[in-house]
Model the fold of this input.
Amino acid sequence: MKDNLLSIDLSTSTSPVVAEVRGRDWIEYGTEDWRNLYPQFLIDLYYSSSISAAIINATAEMISAEDLIISDEEDRDLEARVKLQNFMDRANGNESLHEVLKKVAFDFKLQGAFALNIVWSKDRTQIAEVYHVGAEKIRCAKPDEFGKTNGYYISSDWSNTRANKPYYVPAFNVNDRTSPNQILYSGLYSPNMNSYYTPDYVSCNNWALIDSRVSEFHLNNISSGFSGSFMISFANGIPSTEERNQIERSLTEKFCSETNSGKFVLTFSDDKTRTPEITAITPSDLDKQYLALQELLTSNILSGHRVTSKTLMGLDSANGFSSNADELNAASNFYLNTVIKGFQGQLLKVLHKIFKVNNMDMPVQFVQLKPITTKFTNQDLAAVLTPDEIREEMGYAPLDVEVREDFSSDKTELD
Done:
């Protein structure tokens, strides 16, 4: 009986369990199919879920902000200010500090953590350069007896450690500058985690997976007209396994493609009882089900990322254009204060550690991005502007006005 069935995969999938497992010399991050590969799962999910990717991109831009500047630089020591500005202009041989922070901010949002390669000067008195290291390449070494992580293992591909052998780099430590390179790994507190940090949106990963599966479903529907939509039964005996595979390949090649969608099937038979039976297995109201599902998964992904406005993330909004300015202002301020500043505060703490080593510990601040909007609503403007002023703002000419003839311009002779 087993040989009479073709393979039908109806398995389910969920996001992997976030767990730390003691492996070899490092703590593994991820279990089951994603053993020690949880950061890669987050990257794959980013590439497959358009909604989650849009939120991550927008949030990372907000975290890195428009620029990083010295606070009240006029009141600071000139020598230290010049030294800090030079470091901010050239964090390493190729990038400014803000360019490094843009990469760090992206990892911070996507992975919930970030890593920096701290390069000491030859005399070990100062930090010479700072480089970004992808958080997915980092694995924490086993902690010491006090629970402290003293180093990290780095590999360009943790799915193939034979070809990409991990190497050890000490953790950032101002009291032990023996190694010229050290790793500063940081993030926000994550419950039940001792070594790693989880992203703030981890609770909505299953919904992001659904978003990815929905897009795959629609793509497969276009590419395969019969895939999962019809069951074809032949009532003329059971052929051999090789013959069944050949029939399946023939049907697939002839009918399953985006160019063959909607075409008919032609069969020939000398007996009505032996004609193939084609049964549709498409559920009813599938279009309505997917519309409802799309709204549900969008709402849950937004909630998982703590987003109150789709428009702020560059997603379509149900509200009209006239209300977008108000929505963007309120949503931007709320998101900035409840989400963005938490990420930025952690980045500033790390930067102050670096600045302090180089005796240039000055307050710095982010120049925040602002939504493209107006200060007043359209209703406010309509209440105080004249029709001609409104038309001028919109780029239209003033309304036609009756012009009275100026008789004073006529020349008349006086007696």
Observations:
- The mean pLDDT is 80.
- The longest strand covers residues 113-120.
- The first helix runs from residue 38 to 48.
- The two ends are 126 Å apart (CA to CA).
